[in-house]
Amino acid sequence: MSVFVNKDSHVILQGFTGEHATFHAQDAIRIGTHVVGGVTPGKGGTTHLGLPVFDTVAEAVAETGADVSGVFVPPPFAADAVMEAIDAGIKVVVVIADGIPIQDMVRLQRYRQGKDCLVIGPNTPGIITPEECKVGIMPAHIYKKGRVGIVSRSGTLNYEATEQMAALGLGQTTSVGIGGDPVNGTDFVTVLRAFEADPATDAVVMIGEIGGPQEVAAARWAKENMEKPIIGFVAGVSAPAGRRMGHAGAIIAGEADTANAKMDAMEELGLYVARNPAHIGQTVLRALRENGIAY
Amino acid sequence: MNIHEYQAKDLLRSFGVPVPKGAVAYSDAQAANVAEDIGGDRWVVKAQIHAGGRGKAGGVKVANSVAEVRQITDEMLGTRLVTHQTGPEGSLVQRVWIEQAGEVKKEYYLGFVIDRGSQRITMIASSEGGMDIEQVNQTQPEKVVKEAVDPAIGLRDFQCRKVAAAIGLNGKLMPQAVKVMKAIYRCIRDKDALLAEINPLAVLGNGQLMALDAKINFDDNALYRQPQINEMRDFDEEDPKEVEASGHGLNYIALDGNIGCIVNGAGLAMATMDAITLHGGRPANFLDVGGGASPEKVTNACRIVLQDPNVKAILVNIFAGINRCDWIAKGLIQAMERLKIQAPMVVRLAGTNVEVGRELLTSSGLSFITAQNLDDAAARAVAALKR
User: Fold this and answer.
1) DSSP states along B64-122
2) Is B286 in CB contact (< 8 Å) with chain A?
3) pLDDT in tens, B190-201
4) pTM value?
5) Which site in A221, B2, B213, B285 is 20 to 30 Å from B171, CA atoms measured?
6) Which CATH class, in words, describes the domain spanning B21-101?
7) Contact with chain B for residue A240, Cβ under 8 A
8) CATH class entry, domain B239-385
């Protein structure tokens, strides 16, 4: 089992014929992802990587039964591409672009209201269910099938946690990057809820960073609604206030935005908190042991 | 991106927000001319730097004569103003804003932000003007009123009236307040701003509402479609190393430690700084090389990090996804040779093409200190300082 994507997902890529999309479509196919085609307006009717290319998402859905889309189009056009995917009935849209204007995201979030579609990202490495389905730009080979879910704002910290877990023999059910932007499609709570409902997931790693209220809101939600242990880490203990640390959303605007305030709150709410970024793997192990979960 | 107060006031005036009569000046003589041009008998001279907290730092002064305007300007220009936001080195004052001083009866706070909780443009208002709104929110949360705007419908008059009434802008002030609120909303929406703040919004002796200060912050990701805003950028207000880094596609932020950091990804870059701190060291900078970094880009990263004279050791931490460890290694070798780097360099590589990358570093014969993982890398970097 897994969350959001699996071996049965029918995946298309928007901006399919671009360099990154091509490279990562090949990597995705290599691990078994069911990529059924792609969309590049103006190139409909051609083939790419031996797969059909369509002018519109609606045509791709009609012809291939696609239900998941990886959006690889550049930031100025990304929000429009996501709306097109939602309009065409895609159920999971993964937005890779780093640099979408925030008000485009505000309008996109409004457009989504009442529509049944999960938008993951933007500014995310994507989502991967190891050995089944990758929609994104992460190095698929570092992820191994296992029983721990990962959800993170940062891409590279997601890889870091994955490697630390691999060194201890731990793999993932699914790993989700919700992205580093201040307004994003999916919050931590949505992903935690899915992991809680997934019988194959025993524990969840939640990796946050400075800025915004999401981590603490998720920890508060989890205290009331989750049985499974959560391992938390928040990056940026050493970050200065008022500076945007790489990610558009990583900025300390007030005391509650700091890494220590978030990790203190997480601890109070019953999470296993790794205070050192190098200790995420061993904290997962401790959480599994203390909860009597075999691994 | 931040802009100066005078730019923010000009912009807001163009949207219909009432601001005091004023102009910018670059010399004491020009300041005297400005004061005479705008008229009146009392003026405010305000140092134009991006940082807040100018008032307490002596960057805002009232003048009772044109001669005094001239004298205050002469004293302010060319000094480095140190506020709680500038750091100890302060910010150089290169221009001042001169405006008519009015009689202030009451001060309010009015701002618009993109609120991360509601994911909408949200109006924030308070009867407690002239104070730090964050502080008011903590000590008197009942005095801070918030109203989110549905982007499909826009800010409605009734919402403005509701907020105005809640902070006590009643009667004849209400129609003025509605006009000001809608004007600021149009500004933040049309110009892709992240924050537009009037603090204080004052009621003057003549019963008129007036924006006495203005702060606007814009979305860097939207500057490609905001040429007018892009032109307002003042590079003098930014760290030259940060400006140069962004020209090379690198995200660099100077800090005050002595271990230079070169990392890929914002999250890992922060975590690397955190790991250094946990080992008792202090990071000299945040640096994200981004994705698909070429050897040239990595060499540039080394050069920028080493421009900081405090840097005594370098920690390179790369977990390659769309990056390639072999390209990173080539860039580091090139940097070592071209820049003749003397400082110890600790390198941790992981991910795509890691074997090739490590082999390149080893066979180069150069004195890289290789690390196995994040913890090991931070420990070795801190230890390298003591050699």
Assistant:
1) SSHHHHHHHHHHHTT-EE--TTT-TT-EE---EEEEE---EEEEEEEEEEEETTTTEEE
2) yes
3) 999 999 999 999
4) 0.93
5) B213
6) alpha beta
7) yes
8) alpha beta
